[in-house]
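Re: calcium ion structure - here you go.
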Amino acid sequence: MNHTGIIRTVTITGLTAALGLATVVPAWAGPLSTPPAAIPAPGPVTTVADLDGDGEIETVTAQLTGDNDQVISATVHGTFTSIHVGADSAFPLEAPRVTDLNGDGRAELIVAQSIGANTTFFTALHYDGRNLGQVVDDNDKPLSIAEGGGVAAHLGYQCAPLEGGGRTIETVAAEADDLSAPADRITYSGSRTVYTLRDGALTIQNTLPITRRPVTDPVLGTDAGTCAQTGS
Ligand SMILES: [Ca+2]
Ligand SMILES: [Ca+2]
C-alpha cells in the first residue's frame, strides 16, 4: 500500500483549491511537461579535469557569486585554488569546458562569460602548477573567444595537431559580406588565427585572411570538440 501517493494527491488538490491553480497544475502533472523558464541556478556546477596532467582527475567547481561574477575552483594535490571571472548571471551557470589547448596533458578550462542571442563569449583558464589563471592573448590581455554568430557572423575555435607533438589553437572570426544575399549565397570575410599556448600565454603563429568564402569552406570550419582533453 502506498499511502504517500494518496497523501500527496490530497495535498496537491488542497493546494490547488487554495491557490486557484486548477488550470496550472495539470500542465505540470504529465511526465513530459517541462518546468517554467529556469531561474538562474544558484549552483555550484562541477566537472572533472586533469589540471596538472598527472593522470589523476580533479573536480572543478563553478559557482555564481553575484551579478555577472563566478568563481572557478579546484583542489590539486590538497591545495585549493580559485579565480573569479565574468559570468552571465541571466543564464544558469554552465560547467567549464575541459580542454587541452596545447596538447601537453594539462587541462585548460573554457568558461562562458557572456551569452548573447547568437554569440557566446568565453575566456580560458590554465593551471600553472599552483594557481588557476586566465590565458592571455598575444596582447597580454585575457583571452576572449567568440562562438556562434548566427547568420551575420561565423565565430568559433578548434584545435589541430602540431607537427612534432602538441596542438595549435585556431580561432575564426568572419562577418557576412552581404546579408541581403540569398541564404545559400552568403559569404564571409575575416580571418583565421593560429596560436600556440605556452605558460598560459598565446603566441600567434599564422593569420589566414578569409575573403568572401561560403560557409562550407574549410577555412571557416571550427570544431570545439577537437580541443577536448584526452581521457577526461
Ligand atoms: Ca591531476
Ligand atoms: Ca594544456
